[in-house]
Amino acid sequence: MKKKSIILLIVIISLCLAIACKIYRDHEAIRNNLFNEFVDFCVEADKTERLIIEGGDKPYHKDMDTPYYEITDTRMDTKDKLFNMAENYFTREYAEKRFDHLFFEKDNGLCMHIVGNVTINDFTTAHISNIKINPISKDARLELFVYSPVHNMVNPVVFKLKSVDGDYRIDEIMIGGW
């Protein structure tokens, strides 16, 4: 009886070690991937956010008394298209929280309240300082240092990333912002 218990214990420990090794290898692979690819991803996400906040290519402004643009860019002329574009880089929840209040429908078209340029950081200069990954959910937290030409200084920026169908999407920007 003792021999069966010892063998069972060895099997359980072996399985636990195998699972731990797998989690560690996955963690390291994800970490290395994020390290190598996130700055480029962030630059593209910044371009997409800027495109959305500027109302796409050539938004139409009827007159100076109108505090909104009519969206003429066919890539984002409906809320559905706009959020589908955003979902290449952001979770749906983040995109809705970030952009929903800017857009409204009028006369069967999408319109956007006029906003100023909100980009303060140059992500082409970003340096990743820390990556933390949840071994179970694979969600991640990235800390970057990014130069801001607006402030003429380096800003810390923290991204919370969510794993969506095996790809990462920005779920929250906690410090620093765009």
Question: What does this protein look like?
Answer:
The protein is an alpha+beta fold. It contains 3 helices and 7 strands. The strands form 2 sheets. It has a 4-stranded antiparallel beta sheet with strand order 4-5-6-7.
| Order of helical and strand elements | HEHHEEEEEE
Determine Rg (CA atoms, Å).
22 Å
Oligomerization status of the protein chains: single chain
Instruction: Give me the count of strands.
Output: 7
Shape estimate: elongated
Number of helices: 3
Structural class: alpha+beta
Beta fraction of the residues? Answer: 25-35%
Mean pLDDT over the full residue set:
84
Tell me roughly what share of residues is in helical segments. Answer: 25-40%
Largest sheet: 4 strands, antiparallel
Strand order of the largest sheet: 4-5-6-7
Low-pLDDT residue spans: none
State the end-to-end distance: 64 Å
State the main characteristics:
three-stranded antiparallel sheet, 178 residues, four-stranded antiparallel sheet
Summarize the structure.
It is built from three helices and seven strands; from the N terminus they run αβααββββββ. It is an alpha+beta fold and about 180 residues long.
Strand and helix map with partners:
Layout: H1 2-53, E1 68-70, H2 79-86, H3 92-99, E2 103-106, E3 109-113, E4 122-133, E5 140-148, E6 153-164, E7 167-175
Antiparallel strand pairs: 1-3, 2-3, 4-5, 5-6, 6-7
